[in-house]
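Q: Convert this sequence to structure tokens.
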Amino acid sequence: MIDFSENYLPKHQNGVFTLPIRVYHNDIDASRVVYHANYLGFMENARVEWLRFLGIDLKLLERQMRLGFVVQELNVRYFKPAVLDDLLAVSVEIKDLGKCSIKLIQKIMCKETLCIATLSIACISFAKFRPAAIPLDFQHKFQSEMSARNQQIIATGSITIKTRAYIESRQAGA
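A:
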């Protein structure tokens, strides 16, 4: 699953991107565990690296296209705390893709799941601070990620028949 060795690098497999992040002193609070808001920073770092991995140039998006991605909605469920020097695996996977937004699932693990977040990021125009269509070439990259993830889900049989039919209908363009 995830390599927690000292020799760690980002991984990308079956539409899931995983970024290893070490817990440092500045990440923990007085109770010696990672402060709850710092998990959001870890997730942000993983999303930026994921976009970079996909070949999405955030500078180009911002400076030339005057577009950007912002968190529109966020729901986090915490299970266990991370502590100093833990090596975390922070994953990003696409749940759904719209014209102007992407629904993601992000997990933070350290041998077991520490927290799970579901979130929507919206593409916005910096000129108007309004929703904007995700550029077509980016849409294709996101669609490819989603298809790879859905194929893995179908191959492992880890979904219900109803969900499988939904995924297959989306792939057929229905």
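The beta strands are 11-13, 16-22, 67-78, 87-97, 101-109, 113-125, 130-131.
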